[in-house]
Amino acid sequence: MDIQDIKQDLRLSRLLESYGLHPDNNNRLCCPFHRDRTPSLQVYPETDTCYCFSSNCQTHGKSIDVIDFIMYKENISKHEIQRW
Ligand SMILES: [Zn+2]
Q1: CA 42 / ligand 1 centre spacing (Å)
Q2: SS3 of 68, please?
Q3: pLDDT, tens only, 15-71
Q4: Residue 7 pLDDT more than 80?
Q5: Which among 31, 71, 34 has a CA at the least distance from the CA of 51?
Q6: pLDDT given at position 48
Q7: Which residues are in the Zinc finger CHC2-type domain (predicted)?
Q8: Distance (Å, whole) CA 72 – CA 12
Q9: Alpha carbon of 8 to ligand 1 centroid (Å)
Q10: Residue extents of the structural domains in the chain
Q11: What order do you get walking across the sheet with 64-65 strand by strand?
Q12: Closest listed residue to residue 59, CA positions, set 46, 72, 48, 70
């Protein structure tokens, strides 16, 4: 399976669900990548990306797609994902 396959098969919403993460009605959720007390991770279902608005976050300033999300969550590199 290569990255393109993962991107095509895996919707961000499905991925979030598999991690037990449920965005609120505004498509926001508490960011799993930093200590987050108020939801600062905005999910964009149309593009299957999300973005964390906290400057304390390791992902801050970057748009996170499905692959990035798995990388941050599992702490693995793009190279390792390609070997899946
Ligand atoms: Zn964050």
Answers
A1: 10
A2: helix
A3: 999 999 999 999 999 999 999 999 999 999 999 999 999 999 999 999 999 989 999
A4: no
A5: 31
A6: 94
A7: 27-80
A8: 14
A9: 25
A10: 3-82
A11: 28-29, 41-44, 49-52, 64-65
A12: 72
Cα-to-centroid distance, 50 and ligand 1 (Å): 10
Where do we find the tokens 């799993």? 32
Mean pLDDT of 73-79: 82
Say whether 71 sits in a helix, a strand or coil: helix
Residue pair 55/73 in contact (Cβ under 8 Å)? The answer is: no
Q: How high is the pLDDT of residue 63?
A: 96
Rounded distance between C-alpha atoms, residue 46 and residue 38, angstroms: 23
CATH of domain 3-82: 3.90.580.10
